[in-house]
Design a protein that fits this description.
[4Fe-4S] cluster 2 binds at residues 148, 152, 155. This protein is α/β, with parallel strands linked by helices. Helices cover 32% and strands 22% of the residues. The strands form six sheets. The chain has a five-stranded parallel β-sheet, with helices on both faces. Strand 16 (380-388) and strand 17 (392-396) form a beta hairpin. Helix 11 runs parallel beside helix 12 (351-374). The radius of gyration is 23 Å and the shape is globular.
């Protein structure tokens, strides 16, 4: 691709879905201002790297991406979560053009403008009203707030992204409506803490579609349920008011799916983590949710080998898994994060023991998942097709979020990406379902 008068920008996006939304917003602004976004270092006049800094592995990946961009291009702008530690980055890479933290879109654009003055092109300015997306056309992440008010001892996200800042409900719904109008079939609602939506701006109402809505979780879910698309909730802390949303799932307004970062099952470890919920209360809530909406899918993430975790704590965690019978689970061993209070906790767990516990944890959950998936054989359900290959078609059910959960494998020729298909489940393993179209 030849360079235009407005200049060409290379872009690297790392990190979680929340960072992906930041990348989409920056790319949309670049396109609006007439810049060309190019796929290689050699074609780019400048490179933007949107970094992640959550755990050490993510920091090293981000540092590696910056190093590669500098080596291959030489003109690099850094933004994102790791950008909140500008002194650390600058010490290693003194020749960077600019370093900014997450959500600082204006500063990124200012840095681009310094290198490449904007030039509006009437053809390039025709950006879809839903903006530029980095996901497939049929699903999109909908970020409803920034920041977090929790002080979990293992996490430094609040120091990077700040305190909770909810978007007004009108703003969120207008974006959601534009996305659906642009062909999106599934909205993945994300935030650092989705269930805290609106608590920082209580009583603010909106007039989306000439009806008054409050900026709070229940009203947002109710409003999203009026759109012609799946709505999936991620990063939901199990606060009491989450119970109000479950009937909307039972009524089919939003998907019967909750992604809840529980992190552990031992009360002692949860206290050391400074988590805002008690394990025994969570188990009772799960029973209540399933009584209201039997089809609800529950996914969660856990940390194994947290400092001070004893054999007894770990056995309590396994007991919690058996009792909770979660559908989808992810886990990772505790990794010290620079700046996290948990680094100072006593009795760190040896790495070999962490890995042993992780294997036991995942084996336990694999057995649970396999049984829960096997119970779906013979059922009929609606799936959304993601990918089409010569040998098979890959889809997802309401129980499967993209990239982190399982898939529903269909025979070749079953449909096209973005299409809803009615299927009958014929087989299951510990991760995926296999089905035929009805």
């Amino acid at each position: 691709m030849s360079q235009g008068s407005s200049g060409s920008v290379g872009f690297i996006s790392l990190g979680c879905p929340k960072a992906l939304v930041d990348s989409e917003r920056i790319l949309t602004q670049l396109r609006v201002e007439g810049y060309q976004v190019v796929p290689s270092y050699q074609q780019a006049d400048v490179v933007v790297v949107n970094t992640c800094g959550f755990i050490d592995a993510a920091v090293e990946e981000s540092m590696g991406a910056i190093d590669e961009a500098l080596t291959e291009n030489g003109k690099v702008i850094v933004t994102g979560c790791l950008g909140a530690k500008a002194d650390v980055i600058r010490e290693r890479f003194p020749d960077l053009l600019s370093i900014t933290g997450p959500q600082d879109y204006a500063a990124v654009m200012d840095a681009v403008h310094t290198q490449l003055p904007p030039a509006h092109d009437p053809y390039l300015d025709l950006v879809p009203d839903s903006g530029i997306k980095l996901t497939p056309r049929h699903y999109a992440y909908l970020k409803i707030s920034e920041g977090c008010n929790h002080k979990c001892s293992f996490c430094i996200i609040p120091s990077m992204r700040g305190k909770l800042r909810s978007r007004g409900i009108d703003d969120v719904m207008l974006e959601a409506e534009r996305l659906v109008r642009g062909g999106v079939k599934e909205l993945l609602v994300i935030a650092q803490d989705t269930s805290a939506y609106g608590v920082d701006i209580k009583y603010r109402s909106g007039q989306w579609r000439e009806r008054e809505w409050q900026t709070r979780m229940y009203d947002l879910c109710q409003a999203l349920g009026e759109l012609d698309a799946w709505t999936r909730l991620h990063y939901v802390y199990p606060y009491p008011h989450v119970d109000e949303v479950i009937p909307l799932m039972a009524e089919g307004k939003i998907l019967p799916y909750l992604d809840i970062p529980l992190q552990h099952g031992s009360p002692r470890v949860l206290k050391a983590m400074r988590r805002p919920a008690a394990a025994e209360n969570t188990l009772e809530r799960i029973k209540t949710w399933r009584s209201i909406c039997p089809d609800i899918t529950l996914r969660s993430t856990f940390i194994v080998g947290f400092p001070g975790e004893t054999d007894e704590d770990f056995e309590i965690l396994l007991d919690f898994l058996h009792e909770a019978q979660l559908d989808r689970v992810g886990a990772f061993t505790y990794s010290p994060v620079d700046g996290a209070p948990a680094n100072a906790l006593a009795d760190p767990v040896p790495e070999e023991l962490k890995q042993e516990r992780l294997q036991r944890f995942m084996h336990t959950q694999a057995e649970i998942s396999e049984k829960r998936l096997a119970a779906k054989v013979g059922q009929t359900m609606t799936v959304l097709i993601d990918e089409v290959h010569d040998e098979a078609v890959l889809a997802r059910s309401p129980a499967d979020a993209p990239e982190i959960d399982g898939q529903v494998v269909l025979p070749a020729g079953a449909g096209r990406p973005g299409q809803f298909v009615e299927v009958k489940i014929t087989e299951a393993d510990e991760h995926d379902l296999f089905a035929t179209p009805i």
